[in-house]
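Backbone shape codes:
===
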Amino acid sequence: MSERIYITGIGMISAIGNNVQESFLSLSQLKTGIGKINHLTTRYKDDFLAGEVKLSNTDLMDLVKDNSPDLNRNSYLAMLAAKEAVINSGIDTKDGLRTGVISSTTVAGMGKTELYYKELFEKNDHLNVLDTHDCGDSTERIADFIGNVDYVTTISTACSSAANAIMLGCRMIKNGLLDRAIVGGVDALSKFTLNGFNTLMILDKEWCKPFDENRKGLNLGEGGAYLVIEGETALNKRNGKPLAEIIGYANANDAYHQTASSPEGYGATLAIKQALDMSNLNPSEIDYINMHGTGTPNNDLSESIASKTIFGEKVPKFSSTKAFTGHTLAAAASIEAVISVLTLQNQLLFPNLNFTTPIKETGLIPETQLLHVPINTVLSNSFGFGGNCSSLIFKKI
């Protein structure tokens, strides 16, 4: 019999809060975290809005209680969110059960490296930032911070990264390689990503408008979110309490373009269909979809078409929560997984902010009000550059 996978702990830091409780309050009070850029030093500071964590690096360092010069903003965010998830779950990593850390990031240590880039070549100075530049560094920091970890790895598949980290954790538990895993993702804002997305001309200078006919682009965000996932055997052994169950997941790729999704939504359709097949659910049994919904013309249309392909004229209630947090890149799927758990726990559907006009090609209308409705299942989509499409399905306990 296949091992069932449960979420037993959640942790999150983003523009809408420094922990899960603060995040839930912002979501339930319809308070966006997107605004003017304060902490990132860039010449675009006044040109674009972003979902910036409200704490400075010094504030984060004080919370982590580690003033090592090697640490960067990415590591601080990862360590704080992962620690909250572990505390929330009540696990003890010294209890002999096999624990993995599977994290994801795209920015890695770029935010710090770019500050000293010139000095690295002109003065041979600040060479220590190279030790923390790579994607795996923040994952290693989480493992060291938590302690007694048996397996550590890092995934970087653009904006689907954290979804794939969650999937890998599930697969390793189901195949008897781990008893539990701390899974998720982190990305801090950097000039590198801001300039890159600006070059692609998919940044909105105003608040993003997911699934709106007049959408112009996304607002970048930053943050980290982690989940503790456990197999049923391990959960029962320690008499733990589950928050939600992961019943379906899949990854697909439409290989259409380096950055754009296929207009027909082929990759998204495959991911959603395969996740549904794994969950043994009919499309009609999905109660809510937390859409990827970046607010870019290509992504929202592609995802809308994929949704209609799968669900026909009966697309479930849906919204994008990126108008709250901004698009947090590698952290997006884990932040939205935490939001999905909050949705199931509180039977609350968080709305799609800033929407006024349906996309003319599909006519789909997201939920625009906070709703108290029965929600038993949530489908959460995350689609990355290169056509990397991932879908997760969560079920209420």
The chain has 13 helices and 15 strands. The first helix runs from residue 20 to 28.
